[in-house]
Design goal:
- By secondary structure, the chain is of the alpha+beta class.
- 39% of the residues lie in helices and 22% in strands.
- It is built from six helices and seven strands; from the N terminus they run ααβαββββαββαα.
- The strands form two sheets. The chain has a four-stranded antiparallel β-sheet. A three-stranded mixed β-sheet has the order 1-4-5.
- Strand 6 and strand 7 form a beta hairpin.
- The termini are far apart.
């Protein structure tokens, strides 16, 4: 693993720890994180079904990035489902940073992915009404969602807390 990867992983873990503490201290909700990489890969990030993503670029770009496929090394030829398309217990995506974050239902992010890929299939030159753009980088595929449009899909923390308490 590269130093860049290790640094990003460390920052992501620190953000997860911050949010886990916030949920516990402010809302009395234990996210019950899966500690081992195997647990996170096979089951999800935590028992509450909240995927946490530290998006360190949104302030600069005005966009949120939702990954749907990845590969471990750029030399690999095959991408595997990840992020919103990963088969795990995730029901919610919490994305942002220490200053601001957004909460989305995973099911809705997947619906948007399918709606946008269908739009492109029908007309490759059409523009997204949501401003969504698909991107592929060396080890990741995802869609970029302008914050001003993404906020229309955001749920409040109060709604998330209510739903978490219903299923507790």
């Amino acid at each position: 693993k590269t130093d860049y990867f290790k640094e990003k992983l460390q920052k992501a873990q620190e953000f997860e720890d911050f949010l886990e503490k916030m949920f516990k201290d402010k809302y009395n909700i234990d996210l019950e994180p899966f500690i081992t990489p195997e647990g996170q890969y096979d089951e999800g990030e935590n028992k509450r079904g909240i995927e946490i993503k530290n998006d360190m670029m949104y302030k600069k770009t005005g966009n949120l990035y939702f990954e749907y496929a990845e590969k471990s090394k750029k030399d690999n030829h095959i991408f595997i489902d990840s992020g919103i398309l990963k088969k795990d217990n995730s029901k919610f995506f919490l994305i942002g940073d220490y200053d601001k974050f957004w909460i989305f239902r995973k099911e809705r992010l997947v619906e948007i992915y399918h709606e946008e890929t269908e739009r492109i299939r029908k007309d490759p030159y059409s523009k997204s009404a949501r401003g969504i753009r698909f991107v592929k980088i060396a080890t990741s595929k995802g869609y970029i969602f302008p914050i001003k449009e993404a906020e229309k899909e955001n749920i409040s923390i109060a709604q998330l807390i209510s739903e978490l308490k219903e299923t507790a």
